[in-house]
Each structure stands twice: as structure tokens, then as C-alpha cells.
Design goal:
Layout lengths: L1 E14 L2 E7 L12 E5 L10 E4 L2 E3 L2 E7 L3 H6 L7 E8 L11 E7 L2 H4 L1 H6 L5 E6 L8 H6 L3 E6 L6 E2 L2 H11 L6 E6 L2 H14 L2 E5 L15 E5 L5 E5 L6 E3 L8
Parallel strand pairs: 8-9, 8-12, 9-10, 10-11, 12-13
Antiparallel strand pairs: 1-2, 1-7, 2-6, 3-4, 3-7, 5-6, 13-16, 14-15
This protein binds flavin-adenine dinucleotide and FE2/S2 (inorganic) cluster (FES).
The site of FE2/S2 (inorganic) cluster has 12 residues, from loops.
Length: about 260
């Protein structure tokens, strides 16, 4: 983990309000593991404001990129960043996704920016499996060609039916679970809204399979000091304790997560 002034080399609108931000970050980029994030100080917002966390979409050759959607003050300000400007980054942060176990079929489940957050996991997995992507509409489904180019079979669901099956991502997931046969043991890797993560966790628990979920929490410091981002995690004695999503997470094994808050 380090602090770095990263230089913007590309900033383009991809689709549906998502933007790709590519930065020269020769210190951070070589250290990145799948599922980790950077904590970015948004310029022009003033010194008092907090950094914002973004999953690392791609990393290599001294560069890293993020794929983000403008939803509030910080990300709306980021829209105006220009190539050549410098950004203050801390990263790579957090514990990311593990490598899928050898005797399982990896199944990625993503909503929103989760498609970007899972890309490096898809690229480094020793075995290709299936990727289930969900969004409100066609424009919210990102990077399909890139996952397919890596050898993943992508199944899509949209709320309005403009791409793939009409419904939530669980519609295509459940369809596959129902058809896959008992010899196929899935291991899930999920990133998206917390209700989607819980839905994946429920299916994994019902099937006796493992699921890794990347939990979304508002963050302040991003480095484990402020306790803004805590999540209830089960302990072996049947109780629970707080874990910091920025430090012990964002990825947790789903059986550890207490979903009742
Ligand atoms: C691990 C992780 C990875 C993520 N990866 C991605 C990704 O790859 N792509 C993506 O699009 N999104 C990602 N997100 C979500 C992204 O961080 C949020 O979309 C972003 O923080 C929104 O910032 P905003 O200022 O635009 O929104 P806001 O809703 O305005 O603010 C976001 C947070 O900052 C706080 N805040 C805002 N202003 C102030 C203030 N003045 N003082 C104190 N606190 C303030 C808010 O309380 C809130 O916690 C990720 C989140 C996490 C936790
Ligand atoms: S954001 Fe400060 S402890 Fe996680």
C-alpha cells in the first residue's frame, strides 16, 4: 500500500454514465491483486472532503484503471478530470478475491461496478466459468466482450428486459443452478449491491457451496483507522464481531457475514 500521485492518461465515457479513468501509477499498479481498491482524493473538492473508494478494474505495465459512475458530489466532480492532471491515490487497499479452488467451477455474479471489480479475478482465474451480470437496463451491463474474450460464458439479466433475461440477476443464476447437475460444484465471486450479495450468499448456503462477496460500505480513511466502514462478522463461538471493510475486507466469505443490519 502506498500514496502516489497518478497521472491521468485517458478519461472517456463508456456507456450509461460510466466512465473509464486510466492512470499512470507505476508504484501501485504492480502490487494490485484482484478485488482490491484505490482510495482517490477528488481534486477541486477542497481539502476537507473525504477520499472515495474505487475497485481497480485493470492493472498492468505501470497503469491502472477504474470504471465509475457519477452518483454524488465526488463522482460528479470527477467527470471533469482531464488527461495530464494528477490524482492523489492510496492503494492498493483491502483483501481481494482468492483464487478459485481447483475442484470447483467459478461463477462470477455482478451488478453495477461489480463487473469492473471482478475483471482481474476473471483474468487470473486458472479455470474459466460463468459470469452472471445484472443491471436495470442494457446500458448498465458492462465489459461483456472483455469477459467473453477471456473465455467466460456471460449470462445477463436486466430489470426492463432490454438485454438478456427480464428480471434480477438471480433469475439467470437460479436457472443455471437448476440445470447444472450435481457434479458441478460452483464457487461464487460476487460484487454489487448488498442485497444482491445476500441473495448469492443464500444460494451458496442452500447448496453447501462457497461464496466470496465484496461488501460495499461508505468509507472515510480507507486504511483501517476510523471504523466508519465496519461490518458484523461471525466468530467461531457463535457470536459476532466488527470487521473493517477497508482493511479485513472488502471481500469476505459469505458464511462469515451477518446480513441482518
Ligand atoms: C470497496 C469499494 C469499491 C468501489 N468501487 C467502485 C467502482 O469501481 N466504481 C464505482 O462507480 N463505484 C465504486 N464504489 C462506490 C463509490 O465509492 C461511490 O460511488 C462513491 O464514493 C460516491 O461518491 P460521491 O461523492 O459521488 O457520492 P456521495 O453519495 O455524495 O458520497 C459518498 C460518500 O462520501 C461521503 N461524503 C460526501 N461528501 C462528504 C462531506 N462533505 N463530508 C463527509 N463525507 C462526505 C458520503 O457520506 C458518502 O459516504 C466502490 C465502493 C467501495 C466501498
Ligand atoms: S474507512 Fe476508516 S476504518 Fe475503514
Amino acid at each position: 500500500m502506498q500514496l502516489e500521485e497518478a497521472r491521468i492518461v485517458q478519461h472517456t465515457e463508456v456507456q450509461g454514465g460510466y466512465r473509464l479513468l486510466v492512470m499512470d501509477a507505476p508504484g501501485i499498479a504492480p502490487q494490485v491483486k484482484p478485488g482490491q481498491f484505490v482510495h482517490l482524493k477528488v481534486p477541486h473538492l477542497g481539502e476537507a472532503l473525504l477520499r472515495r473508494p474505487f475497485s481497480i478494474f485493470k492493472a498492468g505495465e505501470g497503469r491502472l484503471s477504474i470504471l465509475y459512475k457519477s452518483i454524488g458530489q465526488g463522482t460528479n466532480t470527477m467527470k471533469y478530470l482531464q488527461p495530464g492532471e494528477s490524482l492523489d491515490l492510496i492503494g492498493p487497499l483491502g483483501n481481494g478475491f482468492p483464487i478459485p479452488a481447483e475442484d470447483t467451477l467459478p461463477a462470477l455474479v455482478a451488478g453495477g461496478y461489480g463487473m469492473a471489480a471482478l475483471y482481474l479475478a476473471a483474468r487470473t482465474a486458472p479455470v474459466r466459468g460463468l459470469a452472471f451480470f445484472g443491471g436495470r437496463k442494457s446500458d448498465d451491463i458492462l465489459c461483456v466482450d472483455e469477459f467473453e474474450a477471456l473465455g467466460w460464458e456471460v449470462r445477463i439479466a436486466t430489470d426492463d428486459g432490454t438485454r438478456g433475461k427480464k428480471g434480477l440477476v438471480t433469475a439467470v443464476l437460479d436457472e443455471w443452478i437448476g440445470q447444472k447437475g450435481p457434479a458441478v460444484v460452483p464457487e461464487f465471486f460476487a460484487c454489487g449491491p448488498n442485497p444482491m450479495l445476500k441473495a448469492v450468499a443464500d444460494r451458496a448456503a442452500a447448496g453447501g457451496w462457497k461464496a466470496w462477496v465484496s461488501v460495499d460500505r461508505n468509507m472515510c480513511c480507507g486504511v483501517g483507522a476510523c471504523l466508519t466502514c465496519v461490518q458484523k462478522i461471525r466468530t467461531p463461538d457463535g457470536g459476532w464481531t466488527w470487521h473493517r471493510v477497508c482493511r479485513e475486507g472488502p471481500v469476505f466469505e459469505s458464511r462469515e457475514v451477518v446480513w441482518d443490519e
